Amino acid sequence: MERAAFLDRLAEYGGLARKTLLARLPEGEPARHLYQPMRDFCARSGKGIRPALLIASCRAFGGALNDALPSAAALELLHNAFLIHDDIQDQSETRRGVPCLHAELGVPLAINVGDAMMANAFRMLWDNIALLGPGTAARVLDEFDHLTSESLEGQALELGWIRDNALDVGPADYLRMTLKKTCWYSFIHPCRIGALIARGGGDLDSFNEFGFLLGAAFQIRDDILNLVGSEDRYGKEILGDLYEGKRTLMLARLAGALDGRDHARLTRFLATPRGARKEAEVVWVFDAMKRHDCIAYARTAADRLVEGAKAAFPTAFAGAAGEDRDFIAHLLDYMVEREA
Amino acid sequence: MERAAFLDRLAEYGGLARKTLLARLPEGEPARHLYQPMRDFCARSGKGIRPALLIASCRAFGGALNDALPSAAALELLHNAFLIHDDIQDQSETRRGVPCLHAELGVPLAINVGDAMMANAFRMLWDNIALLGPGTAARVLDEFDHLTSESLEGQALELGWIRDNALDVGPADYLRMTLKKTCWYSFIHPCRIGALIARGGGDLDSFNEFGFLLGAAFQIRDDILNLVGSEDRYGKEILGDLYEGKRTLMLARLAGALDGRDHARLTRFLATPRGARKEAEVVWVFDAMKRHDCIAYARTAADRLVEGAKAAFPTAFAGAAGEDRDFIAHLLDYMVEREA
């Protein structure tokens, strides 16, 4: 598949999920403080990698587009709900190049918009009972239950580390947290749910390894982009993760590489509350990461994870065929080439 | 029904819902930052008026206790999720006599606990498919969908007024907000869902008037308790609603009663951010409410709403019988006698 055809299909599937989503979101009152910001946030949503992966998985296994759309829309909506709460939790300032919802609307109303998006996402899944029959619908619900639990557990791990100022988060801890927070809902379950809708059952665990490897690579690259991407391209404030004290693979690597006074300085930095972290210290951490090749280390780790995902692909997608299978294969290259 | 028998039944139904809820909540990791605080919060939960009303409605119409329990547990769990997010949104300090969850765990993790409780509440409802059959289960889901939407819309109204510093919130606005934020999920839908589970269908709108009148009386009394209750009995900080700028019936009445310099002073008070509101000004507002009989006015309004609920009761519960019908009738007196 050519890059242009891949991008066309990504835009098509992402756009279809967004259209389905917007058609099912409420439009009424209260508009200004609830439904309008909800619709605006969803209309501005990203590339739609998650719904596109779900739709492509369904079609690659012979399923129908229309059977996948409500689940794809629900997943994208849940993702958007996570982003809104995540930005509050991380005290982020910008998202997709514009101020975060809580910066526009205040924290109380932004929490409420996220809650309503989560409730609407679950609501969309109930429509699967009529669309797919109660048996398959219940299995899709189980998949969503698992992906939601894992994501919120991963979020608790990450926020707990920041809260406790954990200083011993190693690469294995980081990968376990990423599996929970990112991989299940963004990569593993989209494949599982797509295949489930297409086949009405069968072994879904074959997607787990593939999705974990791809998801971990994605998250590491996302964390690298926060450090080295331009703000314009990334859509979030640069070095925000450092101000936030976010435990990334680069930080885990740096903590292991520093000793003596430098290690004490990093410890003091992490113990400082977010609001009190000084730019000079943030820049010192960033420079130390470069000096100790932490970013190169993380880049290599991400590359190897993608290689692992490529190796796992034929087994995971055994029995899949056609352009949608090619689309997913191309997604792997897209991940490698994503600028970071 | 004697008061003692009423209280026994309330404790029994509330306790059964809590037991069902705790048995279905996850117990695993991460414990300290997610599942333990979730379980602790639910274990400490209040009297359980909502699940008790749902269970009693089901049994009064000939339904089985076990058929109602998952829905009753889900409702109590959703209520607890609302409380956790509500306390963050209102910047409350105490709840049920102990520090609010966000005071213990920090705002980011408390948002996450509330999210996980909401997801688990919806999950419990999916079990109704096997318990009640797909038709009734889908109707119960529709009821929960409506109660969740109405509650979050009501919350958006209330938070929006505070955000915009709305100065023209009259008694009718207050009642409309209360219908949305409180009445649907706390009173109307518990009756509707109980009857739906018992009868598998039938007209549910007959409960709407009854539940609205009872719920509005409950909310007004709750707001009065915040002003005049002792902190020990109420479990929340006293006058917290005034610090918060919450639009209550008493405040609506006061705004209508004041003029000239006093009205300007109230306007200035409401325009002050929460953290900057001085105790002397809070006490001045409280004294003005007493001077203008705003609390007596609200008490009278609540009494009349309870009288209206009593008048609506026989129609709403036509066809219901036995001790559970008596229990609900007694709930009305319990509302009147609640200390306020």
From TrEMBL, chains A, B:
List, separated by semicolons, the cofactors it needs: Mg(2+)
MF terms in GO: metal ion binding; prenyltransferase activity
Q: Which residues cross the membrane?
A: none
Q: Which Gene3D superfamilies match?
A: Farnesyl Diphosphate Synthase
Single Gene Ontology BP annotation: isoprenoid biosynthetic process
State a single Pfam family of this protein.
polyprenyl_synt
InterPro entries attached here? Isoprenoid_synthase_dom_sf, Polyprenyl_synt, Polyprenyl_synt_CS
Instruction: Cite the entry's keywords alphabetically.
Output: Magnesium, Metal-binding, Transferase
Q: Which PANTHER family match?
A: GERANYLGERANYL PYROPHOSPHATE SYNTHASE, SHORT CHAIN ISOPRENYL DIPHOSPHATE SYNTHASE
Please give the family membership noted in the entry: Belongs to the FPP/GGPP synthase family.
By what name is this protein known?
Geranylgeranyl diphosphate synthase type II
